[in-house]
Amino acid sequence: MELIDDRILEALNSESWSTPHFLSFDIEIAASEEQIFERCEVLRRAGFVEREFDDHYEITKWGALYLDGQVSAKVRRPEPAPRPPEAVRPGWYAGFG
User: Fold this and answer.
1) What are the residue ranges in the chain where pLDDT is below 50?
2) Lesser CB count within 10 Å: N end or C end of the chain?
3) Is 88 part of a structural domain of the chain?
4) Where is the region Disordered (predicted)?
5) Element at 57 (helix H, strand E)
């Protein structure tokens, strides 16, 4: 977890939902829209936020429990993002087929 993650969770906890665009205007976060989007995706893979629609994020019960100090970020690690199909080598490349 980074400081920006805490700020994003605090902002989402005080509102029902938000977007990276609106969060980028928050003086406490002080990050670009792209940085906030990337951190929101990491938080989503860890289960601390959910993405609704295209770019609307809201905090989950795990995110609220983290803010309350009842859940450690070390326990809820983000799942790695799957590789896109064009980045996966075919089986014959490694001699499997």
Assistant:
1) none
2) C
3) no
4) 76-97
5) strand 56-59
